[in-house]
C-alpha cells in the first residue's frame, strides 16, 4: 500500500490534562462509555476504533484509569443492535457511542435519557428523525452525519467516469429498506450531466445481487455505485467478488469495501468521524447536553484506488487520478 497522508499524534499521555471535573474525581466516579459497533470486527487494531481510542487519549482519558469503555460488536446482525443497546442501558453507561444510522435509531428507541453520540448516522439525521435539526439536535442524540448530498454524489460519479471513461451506464446498488433510495434523485441528475444512464439496482436480500449484476453486465459500458447500506457492508466480500465476476467497475461509499477488494472508494473518513466522537464524549462528560451540541458534517474525505482489482477488470487507471488518491492499493 502507498499511504500519501500520514496523520501524526505528537502528544503523549504524560502531557495530557485530565478532562474530568474535580468533583467527579474526588467522588471516585469513573465515567462508563458504551460503544456499539455495527459491522467492524472486534479487533483492537480496527482503524475506526483505534481512532476513537486515540481521540480519547488526546483529551486525557485513559481507559481503566479515569474512564471505562465497554465495546460491543454487532457484526452486521440486526437483532444484536437492540440487545446490545438494552445491555448498555442496564449497565447505566454515562454516554453511548453508536456507529451508523440504523443502530443509532435503535439506541434512541432504547433510551431517551442516556446521551447518544451517533457516528456517521446517515446523510440526513433530521429526515430520519434522529435529531430535530443539525444546529440544535434536541433530545439525547448528537454526533456526525455521513454523506453530504448531491455535490458529494456527483463527485463519486465524476471519479468513476474518470477512472473508466468508456462507461455508459451506472447501476446504483442499494438496499430497498436502506437509506440509499434517498440518493436516487441526486444521482440521476449527476449521471445525466455526464451523459450516463442511471439504473436502480435495489435489493431486499443479498442473494439478489447476482441477478442485478448479471442484468447490468449483459450490455457493455456498465458500472456500479454502492453506498454504505449495512446489508451490503456486512456482505462486502460477496459484493466486490460479484462485481469483478461480472466485470463491473465500481466506486463504493465506505472503506470496508476496499478491504474486500473493491475498485475505488471515495467518501468521508470514518476514522476521522470516530476520532471526533471522542470530542463529543468529552463535552458531554463535562456537562454539555447532547441536544445543544450541533451535528457535524464530514470535513475529511478520502480517495482510495485498488490497482490489483483494476488489473482484474482490465482497466488502466489514469496517472492523474492515481496522483490525487490518498491511498493506492497495489
Name of the CATH class of the largest domain: Alpha Beta
Overall tally of structural domains: 2
Helix content: 25-40%
* Count of extended strands: 13
What's the total helix number? 13
Largest sheet entry:
8 strands, mixed
Oligomerization:
single chain
Query: C-alpha Rg, in Å?
Result: 21 Å
**Structural class from helices and strands?**
alpha/beta
Provide the β-strand percentage band.
Answer: 15-25%
- The N- to C-terminal Cα distance equals 6 Å
Instruction: Supply the CATH architecture of the largest domain.
Output: 3-Layer(aba) Sandwich
**Which blocks of ≥5 consecutive residues have pLDDT under 50?**
1-27
Please give a handful of descriptors for the protein shown.
single chain, 330 residues, alpha/beta, Rossmann fold, 2 domains, 8-stranded mixed sheet, 5-stranded parallel sheet, 13 helices, 13 strands, 36% helix, elongated
Describe the protein's architecture and organization.
The protein is of the alpha/beta class and 330 residues long. Helix 2 runs parallel beside helix 11 and helix 3 (78-91) crosses helix 4 (101-110). The strands form 2 sheets. It has an 8-stranded mixed β-sheet, with helices on both faces. The protein contains 13 helices and 13 strands. Helix content is 36%, strand content 19%. The chain has 2 domains: 2-146 and 270-299, Rossmann fold, CATH 3.40.50.2300; 150-252, Response regulator (Rossmann fold), CATH 3.40.50. Strand 7 (169-175), helix 6 and strand 8 (197-203) form a beta-alpha-beta unit. The longest helix is centred in the C-terminal third of the chain and has 16 residues, at 270-285.
